[in-house]
Amino acid sequence: MAKIILGFSGEMASGKGLAVKYIEEKYKASSYRFSTILRDILKVLCLEESRENIQKISTVLRKNFGEDLFSKIMKEQIKKDKNEFIAVDGIRRMEDIKYLKEIPEFKFVYLEADVEKRYERTVKRKENAGDENKTIEKFKKDHAAEAETQIKDLKQYADFILENNGTEEELFRQVDNIINEKK
Asked: If we measure between CA atoms, which residue out of 42, 45, 99, 44 comes closest to residue 74?
């Protein structure tokens, strides 16, 4: 069977992480997340893993080492991975897929969901410090941050677009359909 590499993008809490977790569990996929590098740096620096700090570290690294830095890192990690299924979470800008698109097995998936649904998910999952106390106004304001502004533009480059306003099972069926199409 051919290798399948799916890269996921979408606005905050659109379901990227859930889709990746599903692929990890059902298909025994390897997974990579753009923010892992940034979270690791924050841990080493003993700084809070807040959305704001993640964005600051990302901006500093990209300004000093190139906008495509994370795409280069991700491509090298994926090239070394022998797993049949690979999922990549957190693509945020065109530069993030620059080198990934050079991998023939790579397919780009964009997830979309209504802002109210995404807000509910953010508060519920508490992934970043302060998420559980976030208001819908603050959530909407977070979308104006530099790290978030380019995400919507990526939709036009997607190989697949998934709508995720329904149940988890509905999302999983859509993911299965992509994988079955690629097998």
From this structure: 99
